[in-house]
Design goal:
53% of the residues lie in helices and 15% in strands. With 698 residues, the protein is of the alpha/beta class. It has a five-stranded antiparallel β-sheet. The protein has a five-stranded mixed β-sheet with strand order 7-9-10-12-11, covered by helices on one side. A five-stranded parallel β-sheet has the order 14-13-15-16-17, with helices on both faces. The radius of gyration is 48 Å and the shape is elongated.
C-alpha cells in the first residue's frame, strides 16, 4: 500500500469509481422522475425506492468527501461499500429472486474484480478476497443439508472450476500489476526527460518558440528573449514589428497563417535583420503536452550566408575562368589555322587570309573587353567615358567586322544608319560599339538563313538602335534568362556574358535593352540612347574606319612543314560539327587541300541526323570532328546519341568521333571519353596535329 505507483493507479481508479456511481445515481433519479410524471409518485418512489435513492445519494456525497482524505480512508470506504453491495446481491439471490442467482453472482463478480481487488497492491490479500467471493457464491445456500449433499456429489467439479478461475485471475493480476509498475516508472523517466529537455531548450543556442494552434505561447527560451531584446510577456508585440527581407508581412502573421495539416517538414518563413544580424525563421509541427503545436526556430545565419556568398562567388569565378578560356581559344584557333594555311598558299591568297586574321583579332579584342568590363563591374570600378565621337563610324565598323562571317554563312547583312545622326555625338562610343557587336555576334551565331539588319535612327531626342535577325528565335520561357551571365543549367557556357555585359552598359548609359522574339522567325534586340540637342545633318559623311591590330610577328620557323598524301574519296568521309563559322571554314579548307571530302553542321542535333542519313545511304562517315560546346545540342550529348544508335542497330557503322574543345580541365577531358569520343583536340590545334589524327581514320 506504500508504493507510489500503486497509489497513483488507485487514485485514478477511485476517480473512475466516483463517476460510475454518479452516473448510476443520476440515471436512477431521472427514471424515477419520468415514472412519477407519467404514472405516479407512489409507483416511482414506493416500496422503499425513495430510501434506496437517498442512500445512494448519501454514498456519493461520502465518496466526494473521502476524495480529500488519505488513501487509507478511501480504500476502506471502497472496500466497505463493495462488500455491502455484494451482501445485498447475495441476499437478493437467496430471498428476493432465486431465479436470478446467476445474474446476481455475475454482478457481484464484476464489482469484486474491478473495484475491490484494485484497492490493495499485494497479490495475496486480493487472492483471499477472490477465494472469499468464490466460497460465498458457491458453498452458501439456504438449505444447509442440501448443500452438504450437493457438496459430496459435486465437490470435485466445483473445486476444479474454482481453482482454474482463481489461477487465471492470479496470472492476469500479476501481469497487470507488473505493467502498471513499468508504466509508472516510464512516466517518471519521461517527466525527468521532459524537465531535462526544457532545461536544454531554455539555453539552446537558437531561439525557440512553441505556439499552439490557437496562437497561444507554450514555451519561449532565453536565447530568443536575448535576440529580440524583450521579456516573455512582450514577445508577441515584438514579433508584430519584425518583417522578413523583401516582404511587408510580419513574423507573427506568418506564424498565425501556418497550415498545421501541411507543415510536416521544416518550412522557412524567411530571413530577418535584427540588430545588424541575419536570422532565419523556420517552422515545424510537433506535439507539446499532448497538443499539436508549431516549433518556431530562429537561427543566426549571418556567418553562414557570408560563407555561402564567398563560396558562390568562388564558383562563379571558376566557371567564368573556365568559360573565358573557351571563348578566347575559339578565335585564336581560327587565327592559328589560317596562319598554318598561309604558309602553304600562294601570295595571291594571302590578302584574303590576312583579312580573316584581322577580323579574328578584332573579335578577340571585343571578348577581352567584355571580360575586363565584367571584372570592373564586379569590383565596382566600372565607369562610362562620354566624349564627342562619330557614332555612325562606330556602327559602320561593327557592320564591317561582321560582314565576312555573314557572307561565309550565306546571310544578307543590311546596314541602315540614319543620315540625320550628327557626326559628333556626346556618348561613350566604344561602349555602344561593344553592345552592338555583341548583339551582331549573337545574331550571326543563331541565324542559319535569311538576313541580319543593323538599324540606327535619329528620332529627334534620341538614337534608336536595333539588331534584327531571321534566326531560330527565343522561346518565351527563356527570355527572362538570356541576360544572365550563365545561361544553361550546368553553368558551363558563357553564351550569356555578352548580353549580360551589354545590359549593364546600357543601364549605366541610362538606357534599357529590350528583346522581342518569335521562335522560328527571329529576334529583335533594341535600345535607345538619350542624347540631348541632336541636330539633323544635311548630308551623311562616309567614314572608313579600321580597328588597330597589334603588330604581331610570327616566325615561320615556329610552324613545322609536314608531308601529307592527297586522298581521293567518292563520298564525304568527315563530318565537321561546329557552331563557329571560322572553325568550320578553316577545317574545311584544310581538308580540301588534302582532297578529303566533308560535310558541315552547326550543332549536335544536325550531326546526329547526318550520321543516320549517310549511314542509311551506305555512305557512312569515317570520322567526326565534334565541337563540344554548341547550341541546341552540345557535342557530348550528340556523341552519346550516335553511340546509342550504333548499339541499338539504328546505324551500321560507328564513326570515330574526335572532340574539338577549348575546355582544358581534367573533368571536361574525361567527359569527352565518357560520352564515347575516342580522343580530343584542344583548341587552338596545330594543323599538323589535325592532319595526323584524321589520317588514322580516313
Amino acid at each position: 500500500m506504500k508504493s507510489e505507483w500503486w497509489d497513483q493507479y488507485f487514485d485514478e481508479t477511485f476517480t473512475g469509481f466516483q463517476k460510475i456511481i454518479s452516473i448510476v445515481f443520476a440515471t436512477t433519479v431521472i427514471i424515477r422522475l419520468f415514472i412519477a410524471i407519467f404514472q405516479s409518485c407512489e409507483i416511482a418512489f414506493g416500496n422503499r425506492q425513495l430510501e434506496i435513492t437517498l442512500i445512494l445519494g448519501t454514498v456519493i456525497g461520502i465518496s466526494y468527501q473521502a476524495h480529500r482524505m488519505p488513501n487509507i480512508v478511501k480504500k476502506l470506504f471502497v472496500f466497505g461499500l463493495i462488500e455491502v453491495l455484494n451482501s445485498v446481491l447475495k441476499y437478493c439471490s437467496l430471498y428476493i429472486h432465486k431465479g436470478g442467482v446467476k445474474l446476481f453472482c455475475l454482478e457481484s463478480t464484476v464489482l469484486t474484480i474491478f473495484f475491490q481487488t484494485n484497492i490493495f497492491q499485494g497479490l495475496h490479500v486480493n487472492l483471499l478476497i477472490i477465494i472469499k467471493h468464490v466460497v460465498v457464491w458457491c458453498f452458501f445456500d439456504d438449505d444447509k443439508f442440501q448443500q452438504i449433499k450437493e457438496f459430496e456429489n459435486k465437490s470435485i467439479v466445483t473445486l476444479i472450476g474454482s481453482l482454474i478461475v482463481v489461477t487465471l485471475w492470479c496470472v492476469f493480476e500479476s501481469d497487470k500489476r507488473k505493467k502498471l509498475k513499468d508504466t509508472y516508472i516510464f512516466k517518471l523517466k519521461a517527466k525527468s526527460a521532459h524537465k531535462q529537455l526544457s532545461d536544454l531548450l531554455r539555453v539552446f543556442p537558437d531561439g525557440l518558440i512553441i505556439m499552439s494552434k490557437k496562437n497561444e505561447l507554450k514555451f519561449i527560451n532565453e536565447t530568443l528573449c536575448k535576440i529580440l531584446e524583450s521579456d516573455c510577456s512582450s514577445i508577441l508585440p515584438r514579433l508584430k514589428k519584425i518583417f522578413t527581407q523583401g516582404s511587408s508581412i510580419d513574423i507573427l502573421t506568418l506564424i498565425e497563417n501556418l497550415d498545421q495539416t501541411k507543415t510536416t517538414r521544416a518550412l522557412s518563413l524567411g530571413i530577418t535583420n535584427i540588430s545588424q544580424s541575419l536570422y532565419e525563421w523556420s517552422a515545424n509541427t510537433i506535439e507539446w503536452s499532448n497538443e499539436k503545436c508549431f516549433l518556431i526556430t530562429v537561427k543566426d545565419v549571418t556567418t553562414i550566408l557570408s560563407i555561402e556568398r564567398i563560396e558562390s562567388e568562388n564558383k562563379s569565378k571558376t566557371a567564368l575562368i573556365r568559360s573565358v578560356s573557351h571563348e578566347l581559344r575559339t578565335p585564336i584557333n581560327g587565327i592559328n589555322m589560317i596562319l598554318d594555311e598561309l604558309f602553304s598558299q600562294s601570295l595571291s591568297n594571302i590578302t584574303e587570309k590576312l583579312s580573316h586574321i584581322k577580323i579574328c583579332t578584332g573579335l578577340l579584342n571585343f571578348q577581352i573587353g567584355d571580360i575586363l568590363d565584367y571584372s570592373e563591374m564586379s569590383s565596382g570600378n566600372f565607369q562610362i567615358h562620354e566624349t564627342d565621337c562619330n557614332l555612325k563610324s562606330y556602327l559602320q565598323e561593327c557592320a564591317n567586322l561582321i560582314s565576312v562571317q555573314a557572307k561565309y554563312k550565306g546571310l544578307s547583312l543590311i546596314c541602315k544608319i540614319d543620315e540625320l545622326i550628327p557626326n559628333e555625338v556626346f556618348v561613350d562610343g566604344l561602349r555602344v560599339q561593344k553592345v552592338v557587336m555583341n548583339l551582331l555576334n549573337n545574331a550571326i551565331k543563331f541565324t542559319n538563313k535569311g538576313s541580319i539588319e543593323l538599324c540606327a535612327i535619329n528620332s529627334g531626342t534620341c538614337v534608336d538602335i536595333s539588331v534584327k535577325d531571321t534566326g531560330i528565335g527565343i522561346p518565351k520561357q527563356r527570355l527572362s534568362q538570356i541576360f544572365e551571365m550563365f545561361s544553361d543549367k550546368s553553368n558551363s557556357s558563357l553564351s550569356g556574358l555578352g548580353l549580360h555585359i551589354s545590359k549593364n552598359i546600357l543601364n549605366r548609359l541610362g538606357s534599357t535593352l529590350t528583346v522581342n522574339s518569335v521562335p522560328g522567325e527571329g529576334s529583335i534586340f533594341a535600345f535607345s540612347l538619350n542624347i540631348p540637342n541632336i541636330l539633323p545633318e544635311d548630308a551623311l559623311l562616309d567614314y572608313s574606319f579600321e580597328i588597330d591590330i597589334p603588330n604581331e610577328c610570327i616566325k615561320s620557323s615556329t610552324i613545322r612543314d609536314i608531308s601529307f598524301k592527297t586522298f581521293v574519296m567518292d563520298w564525304p568521309k568527315v563530318l565537321i560539327a561546329d557552331d563557329h563559322d571560322f572553325n568550320r571554314m578553316c577545317l574545311g579548307q584544310l581538308l580540301e587541300s588534302k582532297g578529303i571530302k566533308y560535310i558541315q553542321v552547326i550543332n549536335g542535333d544536325e550531326a546526329v541526323k547526318k550520321v543516320i542519313e549517310y549511314d542509311k545511304a551506305n555512305k557512312p562517315f569515317s570520322c567526326i570532328i565534334m565541337d563540344c560546346n554548341m547550341p541546341v545540342m552540345d557535342g557530348w550529348e550528340a556523341t552519346k546519341l550516335i553511340t546509342n544508335n550504333f548499339t541499338q542497330g539504328i546505324i551500321k557503322q560507328l564513326p570515330s568521333i574526335i572532340g574539338h574543345t577549348a575546355y582544358s580541365s581534367k573533368e571536361d577531358i574525361q567527359r569527352c571519353y565518357d560520352s564515347g569520343m575516342i580522343g580530343y583536340m584542344l583548341k587552338p590545334t596545330p594543323q599538323e596535329e589535325i592532319l595526323a589524327i584524321i589520317s588514322k581514320y580516313v
